[in-house]
Amino acid sequence: QVQLVQSGAEVKKPGASVKVSCKASGYTFTSYDINWVRQATGQGLEWMGWMNPNSGNTGYAQKFQGRVTMTRNTSISTAYMELSSLRSEDTAVYYCAMGSGWYGDFDYWGQGTLVTVSS
Amino acid sequence: EIVLTQSPGTLSLSPGERATLSCRASQSVSSSYLAWYQQKPGQALRLLIYGASSRATGIPDRFSGSGSGTDFTLTISRLEPEDFAVYYCQQYGSSPLYTFGQGTKLEIK
Questions:
Q1: pLDDT higher than 80, residue B94
Q2: More confident residue, A102 or B101
């Protein structure tokens, strides 16, 4: 079965960077884009960007341009999301998500990674 | 940017009742690209409906989606105890590529 398994919780200081991983299994990793979505505590959902694991091509939401980098290692079917210049407002649960269909939805989600930014 | 506004913010109902959740878009959304999700505390989102009206794999038929243009609806015909959760709508296609509504909390009355 399809699974997206993310790395564990992180605590970072303001100004630092964080790199979250998302290991895919149960399908061909290079077949579908990996997206990243975050959710601050008690808040809504915010899409951050996408990455094509086959080509490495990426597209980022304007809000995160210049601060986010999405990469992959196809040999271990793992996608990464790195966010730099962290501030307290970046404290959130970060999800990787994948859509296997043609309708712009996400039918598979990672379990989420809590990133806490605190001095 | 397309803004999705969900209403009501909180819906209080009893098991067995019918739930109607609304998602209104600030601009027209292609029906092919409107989805609904369910989220329970501490869990990731679960896809319920894609393409505005198609149920995802394994989703019970008490869940149905409808609508077009700027107005979309998620209906749960007869609430089961496990249906009490937060529901989000999501669109694809406009910059940013994906946006979500702010959510409707469905709570037990």
A1: no
A2: B101
Instruction: Name, in order, each residue with C-beta under 8 angstroms of A101's C-beta and a sequence gap of 6 or more.
Output: A107, B50
Do residues B55 and B49 make contact, with C-beta atoms less than 8 angstroms apart?
yes
pLDDT of residue B98: 94
The rounded distance, in Å, linking the Cα atoms of A36 and A88 is: 19
Q: Would the CA dihedral through B45, A116, A67, A55 be positive or negative?
A: negative
- The answer, for A37 touching chain B at a CB cutoff of 8 Å, is yes
Q: Does B101 touch chain A (CB under 8 A)?
A: yes
In a 13 Å sphere around the CA of A51, the CA atoms on its Cβ side amount to 25
Question: Of B40, B44, B35, which Cα lies nearest the Cα of B98?
Answer: B35
Helix and strand tally (H, E) in chain B? 0, 10
User: In angstroms, what is the C-alpha Rg of chain A?
Assistant: 14
Is B92 an 8 Å CB contact of chain A? yes
Q: Rounded CA gap, A26 and A81, in Å?
A: 21
pLDDT above 80 (res B95): no
DSSP state of B33: G
Is residue A101 over pLDDT 90? no
The angle at the Cα of A38, spanning A35 to A43, to the nearest 5 degrees, equals: 145
First CA to last CA distance, chain A: 40
Give whole-number Cα distances, A101 to A32, A84, B57, in Å.
9, 31, 12
A101 closest CB neighbour out of B50, B95, B96: B50
